[in-house]
Amino acid sequence: MTVSITWHGHATFSLDIAGTKIVVDPFFAGNNPAAKTAVADVAADYILQTHGHGDHIADTLTLAKRTGAQVICNFEIMNWISSHGHENCHAMNTGGGYNFPFGRVKMTPALHSSGLPDGTYGGDPGGYLLTVSGLRLYIAGDTALFSDMVMIGADGLDLAILPIGDNYTMGPDDSLLALEYLNPKVVVPCHYNTWPVIAVDAEDWANQVRANTSTKPIIPAIDEPFSL
Ligand code: NI
Ligand code: MN
To answer: Are 157 and 185 in contact (CB under 8 A)?
Structure first.
């Protein structure tokens, strides 16, 4: 079974898993300078929240309230979302996995921070390892390079979504080392070119991935789905 994935710019993705729609880190047009799609036009059954920063959560409440989507996030973000009027959350924490109707979700560590836009403590940042439709997908979230990525990749990965923008997260060079640790079949970059401070020549990065790793880079165009 295939999984359809759409990049909306920055770190926001939509996944279609056999008809179940999962939105990762909702940050859409009006808030996200790289996005073309408005949050009002997005469908969601679930929202996967990696951490509490505004460039990941700015449209979460709006999307969750309109669609009724269940927000999968850490415990502290669940409390914040509930206190803002959306009760349908599923709290997890680092290292924990849970079997959802669409597949298994495991929360992975991330080296970053996670404060919420109003200053509320946002718990630890994370990433997600999804086992869905026979595929293993790793969404790193905002993170530095860390050598425990070896364990995340140990059972094989069909896809890794990695930040490459530098400054706030790992940059292009460290992402090459991350690919050595993770060894996914395909890598998709994110968290770059949204603002000048995270400008990256993605084609140059893709050439380095091809030259230095056995992973295939895919640079999706914004709002154009690709399938695995
Ligand atoms: Ni962040
Ligand atoms: Mn970010």
So the answer is: yes
